[in-house]
Amino acid sequence: MKYGYLEFKYNHRNALAAEEGEAADETINIGDNIQSLAIRSLLNRLGIPDHNIVGVNRDDLANYEGEPLKLVMNGCFYPHCFPLSPHITPMFFGFNTDYPEILRKNMELFKRYEPIGCRDNSTKDLLLKHGIKAYVTGCLTLTLEKRKVDPENGKTIISFGRGSGEFPGALLQYIPPALLERSSFVFQRKPVKRLPLGDAEVAEADKTARETLDFYAREATLVVTPLLHVASPCMAMGIPVVVARKDANLRFTAINRLTPVYTPKFFRNIEWSPPVVDLEPVKQAMIRIVNQLVEGHPAPEEDMTVLSSLYNHNSVSLGPSKVKTRSRLYQFLHFHWLRKGFKSTAEESLRK
Fold it and tell me: Does residue 276 belong to any structural domain of this protein?
């Protein structure tokens, strides 16, 4: 059996072909490639070798004609992503959409594979509204392995993108000077001269994503970002994170149960020495669910309950009570850690 992860070639965007010597005037979101890397890493850790792992273009799923495979459906999906090829068996985990027509036009598909594991509460609520059973998983980038060594002389990494992921300029006045004095800015997008991307360009983007993750793990004592796919993988790697955005976004309605998501009117409340969030119980539940889906079994009720017990709560407070709310989060996580006796690694647990 082959197992698939999403590749991102951006067929839905306007075609681009820059002439030789012309500067690239388009960029792609490296966060997409970070999702691909996280899924491939997890499949490897579940015992699936690289030769059985296949990249499938998210923007051309209907036309996939390769070997039959099970595809991890983690990421953002649009109407043009459906219907799925008959050669694809979906594993809905980390699924995100805000397009009701996807559900209306593909109701039989979603009902067949319910409960659907959603990346955020907004997607879950949309599915529930259409009579489809759903629960929140968070993004699979949360399963990345924790870094083994913290940097001795690290720095503050300020990572941003464009659009709603732009760096909010008003934030600068609130960042302590000591953090800014030793900081690096990262634009987590990659210039491209061609759209849709070819296989070589996808491989190069994956390389950039790997190097970016390695940079965060090696250098960051604190990451400040408005981007989901900076915050989520960095938290998984055990890096303190401050999420600060110019506006609210429904795609953050899971991660805001793990850490505050600050908008400008709350910038003055930011805790600039945030603790590392202990995600190991969450990772364990996520990994066990994916393992069961890979094996063709339904998600274990107990692990769905672990995730739902966290993500069904209100978001972490941004006001004066944020310390108390954060403390309740830690109590919840450690309760499940102790209750389940999580003393082994994820791989050891899966082998039992």
Answer: no
Phi, psi at 327, each rounded to 5°: -60, -40
pLDDT of res. 346:
30
Residue 218's pLDDT is: 97
Q: Are residues 134 and 251 in the same domain?
A: no
- Same-domain check for residues 233 and 195: yes
The strand pairing partners of 191, in sequence order, are 27
167 CB-near residues (< 8 Å, 6+ apart): 158, 160, 185, 226
pTM, full prediction: 0.88
Is 320 contained in some domain?
Answer: yes
Q: Which residues are 184's β-sheet partners? A: 157
Residues 190 and 123 in one domain: no
The phi and psi torsions of 32 (rounded to 5 degrees) equal -60, -45
pLDDT of residue 229: 98
How high is the pLDDT of residue 322? Answer: 41
Residue that is written with structure tokens 């992503």 in the block: 81
For the chain, list residues with pLDDT below 50. Answer: 321-328, 330-352
Phi, psi of 3 (to 5 degrees): -130, 135
Domain that holds residue 101: 2-143
Tokens of 131: 């009579």
Q: How far apart are CA 316 and CA 160, in angstroms?
A: 22
